[in-house]
Write a structure and sequence with these properties.
Structural class: alpha/beta
CATH architecture of the largest domain: Alpha-Beta Barrel
Strand order of the largest sheet: 9-10-11-12-13-14
CATH superfamily of the largest domain: Metal-dependent hydrolases
Number of strands: 18
Number of helices: 14
Radius of gyration: 21 Å
Strand content: 15-25%
Shape: globular
Helix content: 25-40%
Number of domains: 2
Length: about 450
């Protein structure tokens, strides 16, 4: 039995101080104040810091197996632990082989499980070839039975092993996924617009950061969102738009929700803090897809988080090999992606809570509860209640500190937040009752402690 004392939690939008009792990795009891209820062998004093249900990063690329020169499950989950993230959900496309069949899933799990410091779930995948051959009917059922949270689609893709999906392919896959009660997650940028304008920029000899943004034209995101919302309107499946970046895209999501469609979306710190103007100055460090947008888009995304039309915050963590893949003067030759898992929570507390854009109760929903609910991990994850996993993200809200990328646990030692002073720091990360990170000691969890978490919906 473990006792966690002096914990400030949010319950029904109110702050309260409680003592939490943990037994066998689960929450056994929650009592007011410092009331002693049960005899315990261990005690953790969190010293009045804020305690949230373990944060979830529902969109990461940890590249394992296959692209481990960029990231692997050990460095990725260590960065999660140091960032207060108790559970990550890894994408299917940036590993070899991609997670598109039951055997591929089993292989990936066997490789990454011994490396994990925090708990994890998997996205599954499907390819056009599987849809056209009919093999997807078997493979998606295999993946569903193994517990994937959903399936990732790209309307544009630069990945040979994970091509883009056409409208007919998506329509067929969406119909089966409705039967299987699985979320369809879409990287939404229109292929034809991006392909034409990106080639045009390069033919014109443009190599500057702005040419990347102009090539992946603003209209590509809303255009792609309209098309997949159109399919969902006919099929009635669960749709999720990943890493939303535009005001116009958000307006379409709002419209779809108002029509009663089962649509959700997420955004990332990079789209909430940085704009095309920052990209011009910082260059390749901020090269991402979709690209950064304008100030008005950034402000609208914050409003979407506040009013609930954006459902949660993720990172799209994708570390490039640094500095090699981020140092070309030609923007087209640099890797598109940044590591984000370690810095997402502190950036949300600083730019969200301390700047008056979000309340602590809203952050709790956006960082823990909503993703757990959407992906069938709730109430095992995402809430502090009796019977749930004893996952806690402990935050020192008032601690000021400066970001030094060399100290990131990720293999990618770079960040657009480099040199920025943030307010709000991870004090401790607890996964199923075990401390995996302490601010004064760093990552102290055990390699292989992290467990696979199944989607329990439907």
């Amino acid at each position: 039995m473990l006792r966690i004392k002096n914990a400030r939690i949010i319950e029904n939008e109110q702050l309260k101080t409680v003592t939490i009792y943990v037994e066998k990795g689960k929450i056994k009891s929650i009592v007011p104040g410092d009331e002693v209820l049960l005899p315990t062998e261990k005690e953790i004093d969190v010293k009045g810091n804020m305690v949230f249900p373990g944060f979830i990063d529902p969109h990461v690329h940890f590249d394992d197996p296959g692209f481990t020169e960029r990231e692997d499950f050990e460095t990725g989950t260590r960065s999660a632990a140091a960032g207060g993230i108790a559970t990550i959900i890894d994408m299917p496309c940036t590993s070899i082989p991609p997670v598109t069949t039951g055997p591929n899933f089993d292989y990936k799990l066997s490789i990454v499980k011994p490396k994990a410091y925090v708990d994890f779930a998997f996205w599954g995948g499907v390819t056009p070839e599987q849809v056209e051959s009919g093999k997807y009917k078997k493979s998606l059922k295999e993946l569903k039975d193994r517990g994937i949270v959903g399936v990732k689609f790209y309307t544009i893709s630069g990945m040979e092993l994970y091509p883009r999906m056409s409208v007919p392919n998506m329509d067929q896959a969406f119909r089966l996924m409705k039967e299987l009660n699985l979320v369809c997650a879409i990287h939404a940028e229109d292929y034809y617009l991006v392909d034409y304008y990106s080639h045009l920029m390069q033919e014109m000899g443009r190599e500057d950061p702005e040419s990347w943004s102009e090539g992946r034209t603003y209209e590509a995101e809303p255009e792609a969102i309209w098309s997949v919302v159109g399919i969902t309107g006919k099929v009635g499946n669960k749709l999720h738009i990943v890493h939303l970046s535009t005001k116009e895209g958000l307006n379409i999501v709002r419209w779809a929700k108002a029509q009663g469609l089962n649509v959700s979306t997420e955004t990332c710190p990079q789209y909430l803090v940085f704009t095309t103007e920052d990209f011009k100055k910082l260059g390749s460090v901020l090269k991402i897809a979709p690209p950064l947008r304008k100030e008005e888009d950034l402000e609208e995304l914050w409003k979407g988080l506040k009013d609930g039309s954006i459902d949660f915050i993720c990172t799209d963590h994708a570390a490039g090999k640094y500095p090699e893949e981020k140092s070309s003067p030609v923007i087209w030759k640099n890797y598109a992606g940044i590591p984000g898992t370690q810095l997402v929570a502190p950036s949300v507390f600083y730019y969200g809570y301390h700047k008056g854009r979000l309340s602590l109760a809203e952050i709790q929903k956006l960082m823990s509860e909503n993703a757990a609910k959407r992906y069938g991990l709730y109430p095992q994850k995402g809430i502090i209640q009796i019977g749930s996993d004893a996952d806690f993200s402990v935050v020192d809200l008032d601690k000021e500190w400066t970001v030094e990328p060399s100290r990131l646990e990720s293999k990618g030692k770079y960040s657009p937040f480099s040199g920025k002073t943030l307010k709000g720091k991870i004090y401790m990360t607890i996964v199923r009752g075990e401390i995996v990170y302490r601010e004064d000691e760093g990552v102290i969890g055990k390699r292989g402690y992290g467990q696979f978490v199944k989607n329990k919906s439907g």
